[in-house]
Specification:
DNA-binding; N-terminal domain of MutM-like DNA repair proteins; 23% strand; 13 strands; 260 residues; 6 helices; Helicase, Ruva Protein, domain 3; alpha+beta
Length: 260
Amino acid sequence: MPELPEVESYRRLGEAALHREVAEVVAPDTWFLKGGLTPEHLVGAVTGRTFDVSRRIGKLMLLDTDGGPTVGLRFGMTGRLLVDGHAGVDELEYSSVRDEPAWDRVTFRFADGGDLRIRDPRRLGGVLLDPDEGRLGVDALTVTPAGLRAALGASTAPLKARLMDQGRVAGVGNLIADETLYRAGLDPARPAGSLAPAELRRLHRALRATVSLLIERGGSHTGDLQQARRPGGTCPRDGTALLRRTVGGRTTWSCPRHQR
DNA sequence: ATTGTGGCCTGCCCGC
DNA sequence: TGCGGGCAGGCCACAA
């Protein structure tokens, strides 16, 4: 599903949509417009403008308009970005690759004939206008050791839940959380505030390395743990039968031997 | 304030 | 071959 690596791909793809006049905005699905946004408002705010910056904070993609508002794109777990018919990501775990125009929830048509579309079969994503960027924590790709320590704080919540709290650390989804904790050798259910300094350093290194690696490999589903994340799966590191649990309300796979 | 839970969305996969 | 029940998880509303 789109986690930080996919949205980073979408952000880069979005750069192909910059400096092109938006001639038409099509938003047929009002459910997909969030924060009280109406189709009329979105059309009026963006038509005739150009996008001049393509940004990303965590899993939120931001397109700044030239002198106007910022358009926020959320991809949920099944959303794709298409620019001029090209997809930002080929393969998407749990989603579909079918070319189904009915899944296009919002389309910005450019005066030159091309377009930028968000296509989401399950309608779990959304489009916002001027989203509150302050609600998001520090981006997982650039978080510092001190930033991570502050994000975890003295919390008694499960480590994994805190890592996935977008208001603390932005961009970590279920697959990256499992992969990061696997690499760091930490039990997802540990209280977030219980990490010793050495464990915190390990977690920080693992988080940064995991996010960078998965961007390089091309998706959040390309982690080493991913292929073993299934019934009967064994730890790629030591061969132990993996443990499947619900932690922080999410399906969680971990190695009971080396994740402590 | 913090933490936990349930519901929403719907395509897809599995078993009958 | 068709059908129905689970399942996936990001996000939000709500409860304790």
